[in-house]
Amino acid sequence: MNTTMARIGKEKRLVAFAVYTLLRDHPGQTPAEIAAACGQGERWARGILTLLREQGLVNTQPHGHTARYYLAESGRDGANRHKVASVGEELPTDETPSGELVPAGELAPTWRETLAAVLLSMSPDAFERLCMRLLRESGFDEVTVTNSSGDGGIDGRGIKRLDGLISFPILFQCKRYANNVSAGTVRDFRGAMAGRADRGLILTTGGFTSDAQKEATRDGVPPIDLIDGELLMERLKELGLGVSVRTVEVVEVDKGFFDSI
């Protein structure tokens, strides 16, 4: 191994340990927060988190309005430090073995970047149908879209049943946004809900401003659940809706076994 590759390998291992340590000391981080803490881009953080998750070291949990990352129980075991090091070995580098930089445009997009682009390219009607399918697959009953422009911003409705004992109607709104949904949008949707349902849901490809998040859970008014683009894509992946996960078989030969025969 030449000195350039040795240096790159060491740096990548240190990067993996840095992210691992950050989640250990400050659990519940989003990819954007991890990227900011490390002075890197969000795409960079997602690549490391994906590899750490594949090793069983971290997991995600819906937390409020986005997916956040935590160390898994196995990840807290100091004996798994070799797994963190192996993640560092797998990290892509922006240098060739000769030390030359690879143009950013040649880097393959992550599955999240590809999915985000696909979602934003969908027509409004198609995105509403996708949200309807997602809610059905998530356990909602009688999910329909309104197909009406005069319904006050309500794109669909469904029924959520709890333990087969009680049920309640939910109205939902779909926002195919690249940017954040504002508090005004949340208030307007709640106004359209009046007299129709006691709970609402907004799904978006973007995010929600902090004021929108506060408005959604404001005391004294019907609550509105929020699903941002991060959580939406994670849910599509979990349900296998337009996203498939392939498991790669790795076969290794244990030479030591044959030597001991």
What report would you give on this structure?
The protein has 261 residues and is an alpha/beta fold. It folds into 2 domains: 106 residues, Arc Repressor Mutant, subunit A (Orthogonal Bundle), CATH 1.10.10.10; 123 residues, Trna Endonuclease, Chain: A, domain 1 (3-Layer(aba) Sandwich), CATH 3.40.1350.10. It is 43% helix and 18% strand. It is built from 10 helices and 9 strands. The strands form 3 sheets. It has a 5-stranded mixed β-sheet, sandwiched between helices. Strands 1-2 form a two-stranded antiparallel sheet. The protein is elongated, with a radius of gyration of 22 Å.
Task: Summarize the SSE layout with pairings.
Blueprint: H1 3-25, H2 31-38, H3 42-54, E1 58-63, E2 66-71, H4 81-90, H5 111-121, H6 124-137, E3 141-145, E4 156-162, E5 166-175, E6 180-181, H7 183-193, E7 200-204, E8 207-208, H8 210-216, E9 224-227, H9 229-239, H10 255-259
Parallel strand pairs: 5-7, 6-8, 7-9
Antiparallel strand pairs: 1-2, 3-4, 4-5
Main attributes?
single chain, 261 residues, alpha/beta, Arc Repressor Mutant, subunit A, Trna Endonuclease, Chain: A, domain 1, 2 domains, 5-stranded mixed beta sheet, two-stranded antiparallel sheet, 10 helices, 9 strands, 18% strand, disordered N terminus
